Amino acid sequence: MHEKCQKYKYMNSYSPYKGKSGLKRILNATGYSISGFKAAYKNEAAFRQIVLINIILIPVSFFLDVSRSEHVLLIIVCLFAMIVELFNSAIEAVVDRVSLEKHQLSKNAKDMGSAAQFVALSIIAITWLIILLG
Fold first, then answer.
1. Average pLDDT, the chain
2. 92 a known binding residue?
3. Catalytic activity annotated for this protein (predicted)?
C-alpha cells in the first residue's frame, strides 16, 4: 500500500488535499473560510439577510437587561442561523453543480436545506421572545 494511502487506511478514499498539518493547515483553512464567507455574501441574498439580522440583533443584545448566559444565548442563536445558511447555500451550490436539470432528489435536497434554515430562524424568534418576555 502506498505510504500516503496507509495514512488514510481508515478513510473511504485517499485525498491529496489532506497533506497539510500544523500552522500551514490552519492558515490554509482560514483562507478557505474567508473565501467561503465572501462567496456566500456575493452570491446568496439569504446569507446577506442573515448578516443584516446579525448586525442588528447582536449589538441590540448588549443593551438588554438580561443575564450573561441569556446574552450569550441570544448571540449564539443568531450565529447558528448564519451557520445553517452557509450549509444551505453549500447544498444548493453542489446540487446546481451536479445538474441544473429538474429532479425530485435535487428539489428535496434544496427544500430540506430551506427547512433547516426555517427552523434556525424560528429558534431565533422563539429564543428572543422567551428571553425578552420572560
1. 91
2. yes
3. a 1,2-diacyl-sn-glycerol + ATP = a 1,2-diacyl-sn-glycero-3-phosphate + ADP + H(+)
